[in-house]
Design brief:
The chain has helices spanning about 65-75, 120-130, 165-170, 180-185, 190-210, 290-300; strands at about 10-15, 25-30, 90-95, 100, 115, 120, 140-145, 150-155, 175, 220-225, 230-235, 240, 250-255, 260-265, 280, 305-315, 325-330. It is α+β, with helices and mostly antiparallel strands. The protein has 2 domains: about 10-45 and about 245-330, Nucleoside Triphosphate Pyrophosphohydrolase (Alpha-Beta Complex), CATH 3.90.79.10; about 50-210, Nucleoside Triphosphate Pyrophosphohydrolase (Alpha-Beta Complex), CATH 3.90.79. Strands 1, 2, 13, 14, 15, 16 and 17 form a 7-stranded mixed beta sheet that branches. Strands 3, 4, 5, 6, 7, 8 and 9 form a 7-stranded mixed beta sheet that branches. A 3-stranded antiparallel beta sheet has the order 10-11-12, with no helix packed on it. The longest helix is centred in the middle third of the chain and has 21 residues, at about 190-210. It is globular. Bound molecules: zinc ion (ZN). Zinc ion (ZN) binds near residues 217 and 240.
């Protein structure tokens, strides 16, 4: 079969790979006369299945973003963060994009080997004050809630509070890269996968807050709204509403079923013998299928025929060399 391959693409046998669980998109080369979909068992995607976002609270519900934010504001104004209140507030600190994590101590018994470093509102306030940072409501970003546990979850960027690292280190906590957590997570454990999804959601929101400080229309400062779920331009003449950014990406496995081969790519930064599925950002005015065909043709010279959707996955951090990209990557399958 006369494929036109660039030097960074290659064909691999797929008979074994297709029994695995992590394939995301299959696209067919029309010259290879692909016909039927293949059976692939798919388990959970990393960063999907966030347990704190299972349902949306009504505006009057104490768990709703606006109600919880009002409670938060009242608590901070009255300096009563050490008193018990309902719902309980838990805060997940991040430093330079890394969530606070502790060892669960259960790894020997088969349980999760890490846990998120949730702080109470009072603890968070004390830690910040030790670094001479005042805890104000606009620093906190609403993540979601668990009504059955009477808890509302928040995230905060504490990169400016350098003293927190040593303070929390003495409690056996540290700030860990999300990719490291992803590798350390048992994907068959729904609790760990849920925690990973919470951390990913929080990371994406905080990253967006850090990179959207000014209005893209008039240049004025932006201010958080709805407990940090969106922002608004502070210019009264503009008042533009700004929502968290996502950058859709396609990830595809191009297959030559007839000849039992898959088309993979290799980048210069990869370690020896490392190959990956093709992927690329979707361009404005482009469908998912068109993006798959364009990216494959651009990257490898191979023309793709039928494209079949498989599943989608949130992705909280930089992807494919994009420094600040926050991506929601749809994935397709044939
Ligand atoms: Zn503006």
């Amino acid at each position: 079969m006369p494929f036109l391959l660039s030097s960074s693409a290659a064909l691999f046998s797929i008979s074994k790979a297709l029994s695995c669980r992590t394939l995301t998109l299959l696209a067919a080369n029309p010259r290879c006369q692909f016909s039927t979909a293949m059976s692939i068992s798919l388990n959970s995607h990393a960063f999907a299945g966030n347990p704190s976002r299972l349902r949306t609270a009504k505006p009057s519900d104490p768990f709703s973003p606006n109600s919880a934010f009002q409670t938060l504001k009242t608590l901070l104004l009255s300096n009563s963060t050490h008193e018990s209140f309902s719902p309980d507030f838990k805060v997940l600190p991040f430093r330079k994009g890394r969530p606070l994590v502790g060892s669960s101590g259960d790894s020997g018994s088969g349980g999760p080997n890490w846990r998120l470093g949730w702080l109470s509102l009072g603890e968070c306030k004390v830690f910040l004050e030790k670094s001479e940072v005042s805890l104000v409501e606009d620093l906190l970003v609403y993540l979601g809630f668990k009504a059955e546990e009477d808890v509302v979850y928040w995230a905060i960027d504490v990169s400016e509070a350098s003293g927190m690292v040593s303070e929390l280190g003495s409690r056996q906590f540290s700030f860990v890269e999300l990719r490291t957590l992803m590798v350390a997570t048992d994907w068959a454990d729904p609790i760990s996968m849920g925690d990973l999804a919470v951390a990913g959601h929080a990371r994406a929101l905080l990253e967006w807050h850090a990179t959207s400080r000014f209005c893209g229309y008039c240049g004025a400062k932006t201010v958080p709204m709805e407990a940090g779920r969106r922002k608004s331009c502070s210019n009264e003449m503009c008042k533009k509403r700004i929502y968290p950014r996502v950058d859709p990406v396609v990830i595809m496995l191009v297959i030559d079923k007839e000849n039992d081969r898959a088309l993979l790519s290799k980048q210069s930064r990869y370690v020896p013998r490392m190959w990956s599925c093709l992927a690329g950002f979707i361009e404005p005015g482009e469908s998912l299928e068109e993006a798959v065909r364009r990216e494959t043709l651009e990257e490898t010279g191979v023309e793709v025929g039928e494209v079949v959707y498989h599943s989608s996955q949130p992705w909280p951090g930089p992807i494919m060399g994009s420094k600040n990209g926050i991506s929601d990557g749809p994935a397709l399958i044939r």
